[in-house]
């Protein structure tokens, strides 16, 4: 985690692995210079639970092309005029998704 190749949540997933499997993950990270995504660490954890994890599988998972992750943040001051103070973040998100669904249908 200190090398910024592994986020906190990914580190938690990897911590559930047997020590040997954790060493495989570390070796592949060092060998490939790759970062570990949440999806990859979850997949590795699942294979570790079932006892199916191998070094080759770790290498395959960590070297697969990662889909581009998009993250959109709407600042409260830009959308506050559209929502009352009593609206929770979840309600705001739900309304925005609903409006986007309606917009998409009209396209």
Descriptive notes:
The protein is mostly helical and about 110 residues long. It folds into 2 domains: about 10-65; about 75-105, no CATH class. About 60% of the residues lie in helices and about 0% in strands. It has helices at about 10-15, 20-30, 40-50, 55-65, 75-80, 90-105. It starts with 7 loop residues before the first helix and ends with a helix. The model has no long low-confidence stretch (mean pLDDT about 90).
Discrete helix count: 6
Number of domains: 2
- Low-confidence stretches are none
Rg estimate, integer Å? 20 Å
Number of strand segments = 0
SSE run: HHHHHH
Calculate the mean pLDDT score and round it.
90
N-to-C span: 44 Å
- Give a short account of the largest sheet: none
Please give the structural blueprint.
Layout (H helix, E strand, L loop, with lengths): L7 H8 L3 H14 L5 H13 L4 H9 L12 H4 L9 H18 L1
Helix pairs in contact: 1-3, 2-4
Which structural traits does this protein have?
107 residues, mainly alpha, 2 domains
Brief description of this entry?
This protein is mainly alpha-helical.
